[in-house]
Amino acid sequence: MDVSNTMLLVAIAAAYWLWFKRISRWLKGPRVWPILGSLPGLIEQRDRMHDWITENLRACGGTYQTCICAVPFLAKKQGLVTVTCDPKNIEHMLKTRFDNYPKGPAWQAVFHDFLGQGIFNADGDTWLFQGKTAALEFTTRTLRQAMGRWVNRGIKLRFCPILETAQIKCEPVDLQDLVLRLTFDNICGLAFRKDTRTCAPGLPENGFASAFDRATEASLQRFILPEFLWKLKKWLGLGLEVSLNRSLGEIDGYLDAVINTRKQELLSQQESGVQGHDDLLSRFMKKKDQKGQSYSEGFLRHVALNFILAGRDTSSVALSWFFWLVTTHPTVENKIVREICSVLIETRFDEVDRLVYLKAALSETLRLYPSVPEDSKHVVNDDIMPDGTFVPAGSSVTYSIYASGRMKTTWGEDCLEFKPERWISPDDGKFLNHNQYRFVAFNAGPRICLGKELAYLQMKTIAAAV
Ligand code: HEM
Predict the structure, then answer these.
(1) Which residue among 101, 449, 450 has the greatest number of ligand 1 atoms within 8 angstroms of its CB, and so is best to mutate?
(2) Which spans of this chain does the record mark as coiled coil (predicted)?
């Protein structure tokens, strides 16, 4: 290498070093490394990632900025991540400037093959239209009744008998797996009125459930790779991309058969004038899109898949943490059992609604162990957050739901303690709804979880049965 090339390299390295020193002073969060930004820290702490993010947020007063690509121009754009758990910032993103913070192109690309333009993966007008249609359905009493029916059926016919058999034989049960199977059966019943019976004696394998799991895992794996890399893997047909492709084929085949049966049923119902079914798929099949046309099969498939993804793991994860917390807090367990007994002595009508302490214990579980521990949004235009943080267009904002429930500034000195009492009004003993931007486990603003009330109904019924 001649002298001029060496000098050029030294000059570039020195300029980079000066730039890097400036940017690392400007970024408030965890240590950043040349080129790799804060990725080494994230990888090192991957087993306790949410606790690590919480510690960083505590040290920085609720918001910090870091970069996952310490390269000039990118570090303050696509490579910049603002991490926050400040309720005012969260409200700003999820409500006040909702349009400026969509899920964004990177998120949509990752999930497009699996979830298409379904409600969970849509932004803008596509989301608005589906959200309105779905929101109307979620407020109907018949959907609540349908959820009640599916849950009670699964509990009575299979969940409780499995637990009873294990008790008689003194055998251990994997409660987490059992609850996951039960909530999968519940949500499939609600979404397209099919009893998948994965929660059954002998814990049978179900092709649709396994394909769904593989597709979820393969889609999530795309998140940890740069976009060009997973797209290349998809193009070359490598690794989990092969599994994704195969699983999507199985899922499509299964759902196409369900949709075709439902179409036949709807036709014969129209002819005979008999009342229709109350599952979500049938409800969407009777509706028309923005152009006044019936939905395509592909769209209907995605509707069903989006609802399954939204309502399956979320409830089962929350219940698993709930059972763990309750077994480690005997006083809370006693109070729950006493409440269930006294409500059942009084009435057998709308009894689940009266289980206030149980709802408080479930909410407290979700505060400490939210099923969705963090979420991310894309910044469309330059903006300033209420706490003064400048967020440039093209960057992303991650809000840590896990950290939100663990901040002394929001929940007080005892924020790490499991205390269902904080959800009960001292004045009238009724359930106390905390501000939705402080308790973000169900998201907040226009994109708040549509299944929140159904989830409470489902979780209370299962918890009370155990
Ligand atoms: C403990 C149980 C649950 C929790 C913690 C939970 C949490 C959430 C969260 C955090 C989101 C926002 C996700 C995002 O935008 O990235 C969401 C959205 C949603 N949830 Fe739930 N969920 C639960 C149960 C359910 C159930 C049982 C259903 C359906 C029966 C459901 C239906 C939905 C739907 C349709 C959306 C999309 C709303 C939209 O984007 O407009 N959820 N949920």
Answers:
(1) 449
(2) none
For residue 46, what are the contacts with CB-CB under 8 A and spacing of at least 6?
none
Residue nearest to atom 7 of ligand 1 (CA): 442
Please identify, by atom number, the ligand 1 atom nearest to the C-alpha of residue 183: 27
Quote the distance between the C-alpha of residue 460 and its chain's center. 19
Secondary-structure percent of the chain, ordered helix, strand, coil, rounded to 5: 60, 5, 30
List the structure tokens of 416: 């790490």
Q: How far is the CA of 451 from the centre of ligand 1 (A)?
A: 6
- How many angstroms separate the CA atoms of 409 and 63, rounded? 13
In 10 A of CB 388, how many CB atoms? 7
The region of weakest confidence among 85-94, 150-159, 164-173, 222-231 is: 222-231
pTM to 2 decimal places: 0.92
pLDDT in tens, 296-322: 888 888 888 888 988 888 999 999 999
- Name the packing angle between helices 207-223 and 240-272 (round to 10°): 130
Give the 3-state secondary structure of residue 203: coil
